[in-house]
Amino acid sequence: MDYINNNKSAWEEAFEHRQPSWGDDNYKILMNEKLPFLNADVVSEIEKIGLKGKTIGQFCCNNGRELLSMMQLNPSYGVGFDIAENIIEQAKETARKANITNCDFVTANIMDIDENYYNKFDFIFFTIGAITWFKDLSLLLVKASKCLKSNGLLLINDSHPFMNMLPLPHEDGFDGENLNQITYSYYRKEPWVENSGMGYMTPQYESKTFTSFSHTLSDIVNSVITAGIAIKKLNEYDYDVGLTNVYDKKGYPLSFILLAQK
């Protein structure tokens, strides 16, 4: 899985190229706002679930802002995992400044999370842009299943696979006057390879290689089932959760929330 190690290098380089003060004030937001950094539909779901007294984990937590937001719901303990060492350091610093003491952050390739975390969590979640970094979702979801306690819950909130067909505003195939233009195959097998930085975090630059993968909705659903986790709910939404808002409310499925139980 060399692409994972290459992505680690690319992410750590991107953090070094981040926009000035990117993420530095997250602790202030966490101290002054209710459940920031989470979209309203995720907030609705986690409030129904109730996290009080539970052990929660986020796979591919980036700089920890979403996990730290969920700590407001009084889980007993939280752990965030991400492959980029410097981004994890920012997560730790944010937790320290926000005085959140019952949350740890671990630098790890998700596929290599060790047995100390097996049967550890009541709730595990993935958010926007996490699962795209894994070629084999079945292996990823099996790892998540091993880390869940019996009856533990899995939540995935991400871009809908339909979005993989649509060109983004910075891409050659995009036409702002023709937003029903389909550019890519829904069943794309070749990876996405990018060398221009990480747009939401950095200016454009000639970066190390990021490699990500498309997955159909059936890929996602079947991988959850294969991992022995029973799907309880699958909701689709007509708004995007991180790539672009130009297609919002146009009748396309742009994001989803999947909730499943081991």
From TrEMBL:
A single BP term in Gene Ontology:
methylation
Q: Which domain of life is it from?
A: Bacteria
Q: Name one Pfam family in it.
A: Methyltransf_31
Asked whether the UniProt record includes Membrane among its keywords, one would answer no
GO molecular function terms noted in the UniProt entry: methyltransferase activity
Methyltransferase domain span: 61-160
Against CDD domains, the record matches this protein to: AdoMet_MTases
This protein's name: Methyltransferase family protein
Q: Which UniProt keywords apply?
A: Methyltransferase, Transferase
User: Taxonomic classification, please?
Assistant: Bacteria, Bacillati, Bacillota, Clostridia, Eubacteriales
